[in-house]
Write a structure and sequence with these properties.
228 residues; alpha/beta; Rossmann fold; 7-stranded mixed sheet
Length: 228
Amino acid sequence: MNAILQNSKPLMVDLFCGLGGWSEGGIAEGYYVIGFDIERHEYGDAKYPAQLVLQDVLTIHGKQFKDAALIVASPPCQEYSYMAMPWSLAKEKRRKYLAGELDRKNLTALFDACFRIQREAIEAAGHFIPMVVENVRGAQEWVGRSRASIGPYHLWGDVPAILPSISAAKQPGHWFKDSGTASGSARFGSKSPERKAWSAAIAKIPFPLALHIAQYWRPATHDGKVAA
């Protein structure tokens, strides 16, 4: 992290970064961005746009982010979306979690890790470090009500009171994220590169939302700009 300490830009940490929707907003707003994921997402010209660390988020201790100005995260949402579907197998899995036959801690482990990391980062820094976590509507039953939402993008954590308007017409494909349709992915095998690329694309945070969060939480820096 020595290189980060020498960097005059504010640091954004992007957990479960995928194709880097959050990161693109941070880069545009002048952050130095580091993303964490368990795999490298590269599909033709689509790839993560900043420094990438391949690491399981569950193994991260937040003290390494004590110099961060902002932490953002998009934990995998497949289980939450699946159990919100009207299918019998999905309903049975939901029933098992509610009945305690399946451990809810395993279901929410990645989501919970985000807030653990934030607490550890704050403790190490000695001051507040904001975090915004994105997931789907179906996650609310398991992790609590979201603070705000834009279309299928639900937000938890330190969410600004005012969010940008995002036109569905400008975000083709993203609106399938929590809609219950598999029209895009059904064309591909469940483990095919095409399926992974499609899933990564619909999970990508829209640029207007990512930019707004980055702008809101950007601290005073060398250019003198202050967050709203």
